[in-house]
Amino acid sequence: MAAVPPGIRLLVSFDRDQWYRALMFILTFLLYTSFHLSRKPISIVKSELHRNCSSINELATIASSSSQQPSLPSLHTDMDCSWKPFDKKNYKQLLGAMDYSFLCAYAVGMYLSGIIGERLPIRLYLTVGMLTSGLFTCLFGLGYVYNIHHLGFYVFVQVANGLVQTTGWPSVVTCISNWFGKGRRGLIMGLWNSHTSVGNILGSLIAGYWVSSNWGLSFIIPGLIIAVMGVVCFFFLIEHPNDLKSMYAQNSSPGKRVNGHPELYTQYKDNKTQAYCYYEDSVQNRKSYDTELLLPRDSVCPPAQPVVVVKRESEPSAISFMGALRIPGVIEFSLCLLFAKLVSYTFLFWLPLYITKTAHLDAKKAGDLSTLFDVGGIVGGILAGVISDKLGKRATTCAVMLLLAAPTLYGFSMISEFGLGPTIEFSKEPTEEQRSYLLKLKNKTHLSSDSLPTVR
Fold it and tell me: What stretches pass through the bilayer (predicted)?
């Protein structure tokens, strides 16, 4: 008889509960990854909504002077350079209006989402949220397809998207906490919480691929992805391990049920020092032990016999807002998260545009470069989780990481001001965005290909 392959031996070494736990870890990771994937495109597209027309003007001026053509009129036209209504001088305020429209709606919706989510099935609640998030994300991209130039349309889409996106975080956190206990939670949450950075990276790469050619697809594709993941959530998400026990109990044979309840048995373990209950799993043909102690250690061991245990099914009552505030550490950690999110969302929405303006890079390159921030977020989150598990001091770990973030931000500002900007003033060849724009003007200005400038 041939030996069993080592891969198969590895697979069968894990029991059913471990497989389901791994499945829920991966599934919730992917679900919230799709949320951040759909949030990221706006930061990539900003530099396309208001393009860096000054550099294009400078290149065109050099080109016209080198070819001895008459001086050209201003090339900063509404149609060719920026997308209305973001072509005005107050474009930063308009772009910021879209951001705080999303974030204000997200803040209000997060409070309401926690209240509503505790009273509805998580799987259905999360599915509806993901489908509607996909709808509004695609709707923003359709503004390009249908040539919509009204600020109110984009603000409305951002507000609606901010409200429905609040279904994600409370739902996936509740689900993952149901499946994993407190042991090694730092490492588990460090790995799992990297979904935000992974989603930002994927969102940057996907949006950057179409940003210069058709920025509407930068929203439509992520919108379709999160909608598809919503369908996956509906078919596969298991809210709690007890849901599986109920399913297997319902599928057990009728002969092993009394008054509609499965038979439970008492059995001593560990040299008859503790008594536990177990129930027969007719599907897997094995015993599943409950961790509830039935008898004290010093009790007399009776012979194993069937015992019918009837428990009243009751859902835990939802906690009130004031009740949550009275939990030790909630206020302190909430304030820490407030200021951490202040920085992270600033980078989320503005870092690509900042790189575009300071380094004179096109939207795609700026988006790719901005992913390095999220790469550091993945490494830092896992490292913080491991350290907190080793030390057992999660508050101390959080405080140290936040203190280290302050000088890091100052260093980033210094490098951007004195390093990145001056050293990457212009590439040896015009950027892809600048070259494509100049080629559009070729017929109007009679510029030849040789006159496209090479800046030294």
Answer: 19-37, 94-116, 122-146, 191-211, 217-238, 330-351, 371-388, 395-415
